[in-house]
Request: fold
Amino acid sequence: MSSLCSLVICVSILFFVGWTDAARVCNNSPDLCSKLYDTVTYLGAHNSPFIRDASTGYSSFGNQFFSTTKQLDAGVRFLTAQVHVDLDDRTGKRELHLCHSSCSLFDVGRLRDWLLEIREWMEANPNDIVTVLLVNSDGVDAREIEGVYSEADIARYGYVPSKIDQASPSSNQANATWPALNEMIDNKERLVSLINPLKPDVENAPYLLDQYTFTWENAYEVTDPSNFTCMPDRPEKQTIDSMLESGRLFIMNHLLYWQQAFGIHVPDIRNVNTTNGWDGPGALGQHMVDCGNRVTRAPTYVLVDFFNVGPAIETVDIFNKVTKPLGRMQVPQKLVGGGAGLRFEDMSEKFNV
Reply:
């Protein structure tokens, strides 16, 4: 009798484990759970916390229409932001703020609060991997950034590679140098943090990674849709071959800018439907195909402005072979605000807002 019971228990356990594995959805797809981190393409929201909506007066410097939480809900998994040192107006205390170019120009608050927003989303979505890139504009050291991560209680999710001062070789069928999404979830290391620039601190903040030790990127400020390229721009004086040999992951910038008076560049909202779509002059889909052919592997990160337009997520799904994404919140796939030299009423007529 005991042997029969043991058999039933074992079968039940195997069934339960198989059922839970089958039920797990990683980054909106069960098909991505077994994929290695560096073989998945992640849609990125450029300047994620800098929003163009009524709360910012539809600022021309805003790069997204929706909050970071809604970006994540809608499928974005790569978030970038600019970090500056500022002083608290009341106490004069030094703080790290999220500012676009300058805190006197566009300040959306403390880094701590933004990281807390991301941490709360990750707690509510335990099967998702998120990557954050912080442009460390004032060269803050790892200890100070780590202190803010700890305040936001998000450091506990930090992914720590085997070496923090050297990129691993690219994964292939014979050699998995990055973990699978499943493994990162099980190990509770679901947040990859890239900082530019950063002097690594293995003792105090091993999960904070210098951006250009682990990644490379193409040109990021393009004003003509015919000028999108796949060639390395940063680190400087590199080739595609040298970047592949280094194991660095490819950030494919797909950002079209519109030059204003005094040489100021703002996101080109006029052409974003095409820019973030599959076909047309400077389209995201064609840029990804071109870079995939040149680099011989799909970009790891694809960075866009106004991610919901196009919509960019559908192009990334094609490259990830995700046909039926699960658990995503739907957002309007069109322009939803004014700014950047276009009056809202003009935009309503042109784009049927």
